[in-house]
Amino acid sequence: MSSFYEGKKVLVTGGTGMLGLNVIEQLLPTGAQIRATLHQRKPVINSEGIEYVWCDLTKREDCYRVVKDVDYVFLCAAVTSGAAVIVNNPVAHITANLIMNSQMLEAACFSGVKRLLFISSSTTYPPSDHPMKEEEMMDGDPHESVYGVGWMKRYTEKLCTFYRRRYKMGVAIVRPTNAFGKYDDFNYETAHVLPALVRRAFERQDPYVVWGTGNDVRDFIYAEDLACGLILALEKYCVGEGINIASGSTITIKEAVKLILKYTDYQDANVVFDSSKPSTFPKRLVDITKAREILGFKPKYTFEEGLKKMIEWYKPQRSS
Predict the structure, then answer these.
(1) On the CB side of 79, how many CA atoms lie within 13 Å of its CA?
(2) Mean per-residue pLDDT for 270-282?
(3) Which of 16, 26, 3, 28 is nearest to 222 (CA)?
(4) pLDDT band at 283 (very low <50, low <70, confident <90, very high)
(5) Where would I find the beta strands (DSSP E) of the chain?
(6) The three-state (H, E, C) secondary structure of 256-301, written as one string
(7) In the list 42, 121, 127, 301, which could disulfide-bond 305, CB 3.0-4.6 Å?
């Protein structure tokens, strides 16, 4: 294991979200001094190696407070939700995320933070039938269904590049595909597709309704793999340029549904695909050659292995 993080004070924003928690778990064995932000939820991981700080990152003074004496920052705090919110309320992800990210970049830069990682998104890419390379991001507008979110992420990437060029702060920009796994959000109002489908299967909903046609193609990455990729990116690619992190393999929603029903033991479900319900774009693929070559990134889990682990984690959570 690299000694890069040993003895360093590392801030993880979004300390109770899926990505923040997975990053924290991967950092704990490195010898880093971890500070994590809390907003509405109490700590999930209890460890003497973590300093928790309550804050509201839409407030400028809180951003400066949480980065004080910090060496590295992982920006994992974000307003997120599933397709229904994105389609029905497109601005839901824009304002708060722009405020948080821009203020955290400023606070980190002027407080002497050496390195910062921003989690962008594959929604920044225009529609395509092939795996998108990093340099293709500006070849067209983002898909209409994620137009606002895609441009919000693009703008924040440009801010990251600005801080890198103007102030020489190390900035890593990661563009992940759909993440899922341990600590995922299973609330129907905010859940992404996989946790929502897993919850419906455990509830034995009849009919078992799947939004869209089921033919959408996705690259789902297990959250632990993504967290490892983020940690590598902060260490090895703080150059203010985007880099894709994904599983490198694809699956249709129909195929994912079949596996979900298998591992929740609901194989006699009356499955109904409802194309009238909101979905985003039909195919989202990215090329991870750059991550393999520069970061040495290699996903540990297949989609099926990650899904089984997520379902095993969620089972005891359902009654808590």
Answers:
(1) 20
(2) 82
(3) 26
(4) confident
(5) 9-12, 33-38, 50-54, 72-75, 115-119, 170-176, 178-180, 208-211, 217-218, 220-222, 239-245, 251-252, 271-274
(6) HHHHHHHHCCCCCCCEEEECCCCCCCCECCECCHHHHHHHCCCCCC
(7) 301
- Looking up tokens 């939700």 gives 81
Fold for domain 9-181+220-249+283-301? Rossmann fold (3.40.50)
Q: Which H/E stretch holds residue 20?
A: helix 18-27
Which residue shows structure tokens 């969620």?
Answer: 314
Using DSSP bridges, classify how beta strands 251-252 and 217-218 pair: parallel, antiparallel or unpaired: antiparallel
Joined together, the tokens standing for residue 100 give 């948080």
Q: Is 21 exposed, middle or buried (0-12, 13-18, 19+ CB in 10 A)?
A: buried
The encoded tokens of residue 252 equal 């249709």
Give the count of beta carbons closer than 10 Å to the beta carbon of residue 315.
12
* Predicted confidence (pLDDT) per residue in 143-193, tens digit: 988 899 999 999 999 999 999 999 999 999 999 999 999 999 999 888 889
The whole model's pTM is what?
0.95
CB atoms within 10 A of CB 254: 15
CA dist 320 and 299 (Å) reads 31
Give the Å distances, CA to CA, from 151 to 12, 46, 142: 24, 37, 7
Q: How many CB atoms lie within 10 A of CB 24?
A: 27
For residue 69, the tally of other CB atoms under 10 A from its CB is 11
Tokens of 172: 């890593």
Instruction: Please provide residue 2's backbone torsions phi and psi, each rounded to the nearest 5 degrees.
Output: -65, 145
Q: Which two tokens stand for residue 20?
A: 């923040």
Calpha distance 261→254 (Å, rounded) = 11
